[in-house]
Write a structure and sequence with these properties.
Blueprint lengths: L1 H12 L1 E3 L5 E3 L13 H10 L10 H15 L2 H4 L13 H21 L8 E4 L2 H8 L9 H21 L7 E8 L2 E8 L19
Parallel strand pairs: 3-4
Antiparallel strand pairs: 1-2, 4-5
Length: 209
């Protein structure tokens, strides 16, 4: 509520005054506010709307559920000062899988930027990982945020432990990470053949005839 009061001050006078009397201008500022309000209400509607066509949670029903939830949460004087309200469509499985792929790529980039020998390590993420992380559970209320925790728990932490536990030539190793039967498997193998000395170096000292 205190935050909403501060926002009312900004939307009314175009400025914000702090406890010390300092005034911060917001004249040329666009405020963008995001919220997960209405997620629970939308779920409740989808469970009680009946059968057949009536059972379809249309965009109109979802918007109404969110709007009603906003009216319960915020005071009229606050909502009346909000210029536009945008209702985003819920993330689909395709969206989640794309986000997971981006997070895995980010993990690979961070490893490359690491100022340690591990930056030379080659890492390959199998496509099965995306479905594995997705199946761990998606919380519509928190969007894609839980995915980061799942990736850290299932991939980042086990990978870090393996690297610290095993002595490997990072410039000569490929780490493969895949999911099978609900479990993440991390493997490592040599990707370059060690150069052997020329054959005459190993010929020994034969007697000259």
């Amino acid at each position: 509520d205190k935050v909403h009061q501060l926002q009312l001050q900004i939307m009314d006078g175009g400025r914000l005054t702090d406890g010390k009397g300092n005034k911060v201008p917001f004249k040329d500022t666009i405020l963008i506010m995001t919220s997960n309000i209405g997620v629970d209400e939308t779920k409740a509607v989808s469970k009680t709307i009946g059968f057949g066509d009536v059972a379809k949670l249309t965009k109109g029903k979802r918007v109404k559920a969110v709007t009603d939830a906003m009216k319960k949460k915020f005071k009229p004087e606050f909502l009346n000062r909000v210029t536009t309200t945008i209702n985003f469509d819920p993330l689909t499985k395709k969206n989640y899988l794309h986000i997971i792929g981006l997070e895995l790529e980010k993990l690979k980039v961070n490893l490359k930027l690491n100022r340690t020998p591990y930056s030379k390590l080659e890492v390959d993420f199998d496509k099965s990982l995306c479905n594995h992380i997705y199946k761990l559970g998606i919380d519509e209320k928190f969007g894609a945020r839980p995915l980061q925790r799942s990736i850290e728990r299932e991939i980042s932490t086990p990978l870090a432990r393996k690297l610290l536990r095993e002595d490997m030539d990072c410039s000569n190793t490929l780490v493969t990470i895949a999911a099978k039967r609900g479990k993440v498997n991390i493997g490592a193998k040599c990707i370059k053949k060690v150069d052997e000395p020329p054959f005459y170096m190993n010929a020994g000292n034969g007697n000259e005839g």
